[in-house]
Amino acid sequence: MTEALAVRDLVAGYSAAPVLDGVSVAAAPGTITAVLGANGAGKTTLLRTISGLVRPRAGQVLLAGAAITARSPEDITRAGIAHVPEGQGVITELTIEENLRVGLLLRDRGQRAAALAGTYERFPVLGERRRRLAATLSGGERQILVIARALLTAPRVLLLDEPSLGLAPKIVAQVMDLVRQLRDDAGLTVLLVEQNARIALAIADQGLVLNLGKVVARADAATLAADEGLRRHYLGF
Ligand code: ATP
Questions:
Q1: Cys-Cys with 221: which of 18, 45, 204, 212 at CB 3.0–4.6 Å?
Q2: CA-proximal residue: ligand 1, atom 22 (nearest)
Q3: For residue 81, what are the CA distances in angstroms to 19, 51, 213?
Q4: Looking at ligand 1, which residue's alpha carbon is closest to its atom 9?
Q5: Residues 70, 76: contact at Cβ < 8 Å?
């Protein structure tokens, strides 16, 4: 089967020394891949390189078998990859609906109203407050808003960077449930970057561990979660 997303021998960084040093990822359609590793391992850089924000020096990114390496972020979004960066990047000065409309900019005008209505049906908490400023939302609601905004681009692949960051455990569980539903109901392929390896592996199908820009382990999620050495050295649980 063609992988929904494949990364082959990716080398990328910001200065002379590469941050990613030959990273490969293979994600089957409708699966969650947890991308784990300590601070500075290169997880965010991997997502930024896939979505076109960082230019790779070598290697390939393939979406459903088609090369999208080094295309512009806009082209990559149009091709079907949505990136939710770390830090609940809502535009607090805009209303919830205005934030969501950013996700619709690349969609045909004729599809926008129905897509927005679908979002409000799926996430009533956003619909009820659509005219309020995004600044009035809690951290968990902001995380839902940025995921909903990413979904409005109609992606096949969702890149999620630390969605649990700064959220209370109960809210983290809700966000993880949503990610699981996106895989199970919508068949989305998800790359999930998490510091919290335990919760990520609980919903992931497979995972990989990055250390200093290299993949040091990859396996199905249950195998990684059961590996005590890996947990002690890299996963922190
Ligand atoms: P974290 O969980 O801390 O975000 P990470 O695994 O996502 O860690 P990256 O953010 O990809 O790691 O960072 C990897 C390395 O690249 C780090 O050494 C970091 O200092 C460096 N780095 C990240 N962003 C930049 C940048 N914009 N310019 C220069 N160096 C950067």
A1: 204
A2: 14
A3: 22, 7, 22
A4: 42
A5: no
